[in-house]
Amino acid sequence: MRKLKCFMLMAAVAFAIVGCRKPVEVSFGTASQEVAALGDTVEVALKSNGEWTIYPVADWLVVSPTSGTGDATLTLIADANTTGDSRTTEIVANTKDNTASLTITQNMPEYFLNVTPKDIQCDAEGGEFAISVSSNVDWTVTVPNWITSSMASGNGDATLTLTINPIQGEYSVNREVDVVFGSQQVSDKVHVVQSIAVIMAIELDPTSLEFANTGETKTVSVSTEDAWTAEAAADWVSLSLTEGQGNAQVSVTVDENPAYEDRQTTVLFTSASGFQTMLVVKQEASVDPHFLDVTPLAFHFPKEGGQGEITIGCDTDWEIAMSCEWLTLSQTSGTGNATVVLTATANPIAEPRTAGFVIKSGNLSHDFSVSQVAGDQPVEANFNVDTLFIPASGGMQHLELTSNTAWELEASNWITLLTGSGQGDATIDMAISANASTEGRIGYLSAKHLGVVLATVVVVQEGKVYELEVNPTEFEARAEGGDYTITISSNQSWSLNVGASWLHCEPMSGFGNKTVTVTVDPSMSMHPRTGLIKVIGESGQDVTVTVEQHQ
Question: β-pairing, 317-321 with 298-301?
Fold first, then answer.
């Protein structure tokens, strides 16, 4: 009986100790963080009262550190965004009791230009090297006389070839240059090194390794006649050798993957003479212990609209991300099992429509699709004007578009649209280029739906009107001569024709508004004299200035 009482007392004490353990919390200093489009390094505060780890993130973002104990400052390093669109990823901090998430957003840069590779190394024989250009601007290539490019300029994405000529006998040194890819807004470069000395290669076997989520060790063979170094890009990869001379066997060890997503990194091997090659390291995701079941995964509604039930089976929190004006949900988040009612409004237009959304729980997700048959009202779009009259100087213009459907815009090449597509009513902003010709021009702006033109505005722009004024058009000069000025007001280029040898003008030609100095020589005659200065514009207009000089 006494032993039984002791056992019960010990069990009660153990239960009290376990039951009173404080949960391990974790949180970020902010719920979202924006990084610069052209690449950025930012710091984010993390607060915790215990051990934590960071789930892997997108390959364009590096987080350091990825694990720790207690409060920490995380450093986020984002690559430049060259995708042509904004992008978002999520960082998840995990403890044994809780998780916290941080949303990272990177906008598309207004202008970007990126070339790969960034470095080319070759021997004295030279060779051909493919360069990939990713851009949204016009660009040109600047090369020295010992390198030729298959393209001197381009627009947007392209692949070109740089041909490096052999080093001839008269050269006794290596040569090095930056091949510049540039535009008015941005630039990038490829660094080229051509060496007389033979660059010793370094080879790996295999060139990639795949690891289980539990972590393990595998071997890669290094073959080279040179000295070399090796560096892993991620802290979850360790190497038995980080430098050596000649051939070697290197053991590659990866830690257990704590996340429910595959992860990948590289190990860079570099020879002493500058040759580089990479080992790709891949590791499978850990098995997610949670579950998320959704039934059904699609609904098809009649034109009158209606409702449908979505059955969600889950052992933790879930949420639905949806943005659609004609669909509503009875709830967009919850915990555990639930039945969600999806409601579709009547379709007002004579064409079918579709939508979709995502049901997500942690790293698990299901795509849900919705379709609806066509309604009775035909699709339509209308601008608030039929004709738009624009001065020769151009400028910003605004139109109102009313529509009951999705649309795309198309315009003449001298009209720049700030809005290319949309849905329903909208304000259309556009920039009209100045008309450099004296002839007027007619363009168009059209709203289309599935390639069919629904509405068109005729854009009429007047031609350039040349202006040329001179002040004064006559003046009297003193007998002893001197400097005088005339003022030219114009929007064109012009030149001077001086009809007297005793008159001198500076400058003799120009563009736009300018003050011209007229130097009059002293008069040695007893008689007055008259000289003419003719200002002639590029349009053929001319103005005559009369200069009279008396004794």
Answer: unpaired
**For residue 136, what is the enclosing H or E element?**
none
Q: Percent of the chain, pLDDT > 90? A: 63
The architecture that CATH gives domain 292-372 is: Sandwich (2.60)
What would you report as the CA-atom Rg of the chain, rounded to the nearest whole angstrom? 37
- The number of residues making up the chain comes to 551
* 480 vs 549: CA distance, rounded Å: 9
What is the C-alpha separation between 372 and 345, in angstroms, rounded? 10
Check: pTM over 0.70? Answer yes or no.
no
Domain 203-283, CATH class in plain words? mainly beta
Instruction: Tell me the per-residue pLDDT of 59-105, one tens digit each, with 9 for 90 and over.
Output: 888 999 989 999 999 999 988 887 767 889 988 999 988 989 889 99
Q: pLDDT tier at 3 (50, 70, 90 boundaries)?
A: very low
Residue 61 in contact with residue 54, Cβ under 8 Å? no
Pick the CATH number of 381-461 from 2.60.40.10, 3.40.50.1370, 3.30.930.10, 3.40.50.150: 2.60.40.10
3-state secondary structure string across 307-372: EEEEEEEECCEEEEECCCCCEEECCCEEECCEEEEEEECCCCECCCEEEEEEEEECCEEEEEEEEE
Domain 26-106, CATH class in plain words: mainly beta
Question: What are the phi and psi torsion angles at 146 (to 5°)?
Answer: -100, 10
pLDDT digits (tens, 9 = 90+) for 406-419: 899 999 999 999 98
